[in-house]
Design brief:
Layout: E1 6-8, E2 11-13, H1 15-30, H2 34-47, H3 51-63, H4 67-78, H5 85-97, H6 101-114, H7 119-132, H8 161-169, H9 175-179, H10 183-188, H11 194-205, H12 226-233, H13 238-241, H14 252-260, H15 266-270, H16 274-278, H17 285-297
Antiparallel strand pairs: 1-2
Helix pairs in contact: 1-2, 2-3, 3-4, 4-5, 5-6, 5-7, 6-7
Length: 306
């Protein structure tokens, strides 16, 4: 072994070379070249067992959608005597998304046992424990677009004055209009409260219907209301609206949130509101900022309610 070489975490490597790889990885990541940054981190990891390098590599792999390799690396640095705390949390989040609630809970309990006030671990632990007991309600039956029931005025239903007034101000006049709006949109409207939402959902459920049902196309996939689509076409070309979400190169968490909403194109995304996105489990301000930024690059924004 030369005088410049040293043993780093059990591997023989030149610390200066490791530093160069890490510096280049940081530069490439700053330039949004994640693949290049991953390449440099792999090289650094070949020379060092530093868990922080493995953690950074796993984190970038997760952002690039390489979830299996990411999980393998997180597992590696969390299966030792002194596990990497942030890796425990990140791995637990991925496992929760996969439905492996028991394993995710055990990982988070490890963090809380070490640091009882760890904010992310405490927050995600509550989510995981709630998810373990969650029951999926059966989907209400569909209703055809030509059904005469859709033309029934909302004033025909026994709703409170506040609920009726809010629907009137939102220009929701018929049952069909009501099926073309989501729960999050209603709640984001001024003066529309939880009680009014409960009323409306109960009324729809009694008829085997649900909010947002009218936005769904074949196979239950959401579409875009014609009036919203016409507005968007005045802002950008239709070709932009038809671009797939994959073209935005979003982080894994943001992509999963859009998958839960069955959003597949930029047009579908631009037709949604911030409230709808924020209503998705584990979707936070960072993902919202990321989506706003990507849409802006294409001349679009999330929809706002007047």
């Amino acid at each position: 072994m030369s005088g410049l070489d040293t043993v780093i975490g059990g591997k023989a490597g030149n610390p200066e070379v490791v530093k160069k790889h890490l510096a280049e990885a940081a530069r490439l990541e700053k330039d949004r070249n994640r693949e290049g940054a991953i390449r440099e981190l792999r090289a650094a990891r070949e020379l060092s067992d530093d868990p922080n390098i493995t953690f950074k590599l796993a984190y970038l792999l997760d952002l690039c959608g390489e979830e299996n390799e990411c999980v393998a690396l997180y597992t590696e640095i969390t299966s030792v005597k002194k596990p990497h705390i942030n890796a425990l949390v990140n791995l637990a989040v991925i496992l929760e998304d996969r439905g492996e609630y028991g394993r995710a809970e055990r990982l988070l309990l490890q963090v809380v046992d070490t640091d009882p006030n760890h904010p992310r671990a405490r927050l995600f632990l509550k989510d995981v424990q709630a998810s373990k007991d969650m029951k999926v309600d059966a989907e209400p039956s569909a209703i055809g677009p030509g059904n005469a029931v859709l033309d029934t005025p909302v004033t025909d239903f026994e709703l409170s004055v506040r609920a009726r007034n809010c629907l009137k101000k939102m220009q929701i006049r018929t049952l069909g209009d009501l099926l073309k709006i989501t729960e999050a949109e209603l709640l984001s409207y001024k003066n529309f409260g939880e009680q009014s939402l409960v009323e409306i959902k109960s009324m729809l459920a009694s008829k085997g219907l649900r909010l947002g049902q009218g936005l769904e196309g074949p196979g239950g996939r959401p579409g875009v209301r014609k009036d919203i689509l016409d507005e968007l076409k005045q802002i950008v070309p239709e070709a932009v609206l038809n671009k797939p979400i994959s073209s935005l190169e979003l982080s894994v968490r943001a992509r999963k949130a859009l998958q839960l909403l069955s959003i597949g194109t930029l047009g579908e995304l631009a037709s949604r509101t911030e409230a709808e996105l924020m209503g998705v489990k584990n979707f936070g301000a960072t993902s919202l900022h990321e989506i706003r930024e990507r849409l802006q690059q294409h001349g679009l924004t999330l929809r706002t309610l007047s």
